[in-house]
Amino acid sequence: MTEVLIDATDAGRFGAYLAEPAGTGSAPGMLVIQEIFGINQNVRSICDDYAAQGYVAIAPDLFWRQEPGLQLDSNSKEGWKRAMELLQGFSETKGIEDLIATLAWLRTHPRVSAKVGTVGYCLGGKLAYLMSTRSDVDAAVGYYGVGIEGSIGEAGAITHPLMLHVAEKDGFSSPEAQKAIRDGLAPIVHATVHTYPGVDHAFARKGGDHYDANAANLADGRTASFFAHILKA
Fold it and tell me: For this structure, is 209 an active site residue?
């Protein structure tokens, strides 16, 4: 596990957390997209988990233009306050540019085989969706992405498999928004939407207030099978 630097497409360089599987052989790549709390221990643990599953996993710092190296506590009021402030100043367009730059970097890594997937949570859940519409990533998974309905018009650009995990009681995504997502993706043969009854936003964040082990295990199992089928075949 290490820190690396990636060249931005406009100017500057941003940091990323990199976790590699044991051994020296080739492996698929996994681009892990942060929540609004920066590259904190939760995101690093997700990368480590993917490395243990046999992926070269990387999580880029998407808030580097505002406050590089940020690691906020998702269980504290201070962490939430700062995260929401940063979210207001976050450029979605620049974030996607940074993710595409990270995708390109990952594909040149000496251990990465031909295929790379991406998985994101919260903010990252929407960005994972946008990576499926704006990049050539081989597979994408989004957990409880916020605001996807506003970009559902891009769904026709999806050419690789996409899976979304939706929390039925998500406080940041109304029933109407969730319906718009399901309806918008229904004609897309590459897209699958799973809804988890009775759970709230961030149901898969271990240690979080809304963590639900049953829903998290189901979603994570579906995700693992999805990526294994597409990226390891």
Answer: no
